[in-house]
Amino acid sequence: MENGRIKNILWDWNGTLLNDMELCIDCMNTLMEERSLPRLSPELYREVFTFPIRDYLLKIGFDFSKEAFEVPADQFVVLYNRRYPEARLFEDADGTLEHFSRLGIRQFILSAQEHGLLERMLEYYKIRHYFEAVTGTADNYAHSKLEAGKSLIVRNKLVPGETVMIGDTTHDHEVADALGVSTLLLAQGHQSKGRLRATGSAVLDDFDAVRKYLENHKGSIN
Q: What would the CATH number be for the domain defined by 8-19+88-216?
């Protein structure tokens, strides 16, 4: 790669490579029905989903004066873990990973998902081999992935100016900004295009647009 070009990609997982929004809504609606809370629609979900997950649950009506946050958080993970094979990779996710691999770009996963489950899922979807390293979180509670991102960058000797994070949430933008790396946001995941555009990051619709964007910008993103 030429000097100044993007040499490293930090991929988010859920909602970026894996199309699991409908599954997440379905699992959450199961928990909400048990508590007589109104169901989430896809439109509402994409407007309220956020990090940390505790804030998201508060927004949709969970009452942590009646139960600990960890109760629904753990219940959700049990449901999701049981059903994740129902989700599919986004169209051309595999081809895009292969494309960047052929170009010699180092690829990593930086996810708020619990690390053990993340590794199992990457093996299940047969894409683990594309990633030099995979970093998830230590528990089920998805507080933030900033500290994990700092560790990933240090361990793998990544130069922030040669690195881009590709995600689907405002949290991905916030993490990338704190890490000093560029951001591309995909509008096919867990948050609405309007919320993503408000970050000021480039917002793209699909993987074809990602490949074209990086090529048109010579891999260097402001």
A: 3.40.50.1000
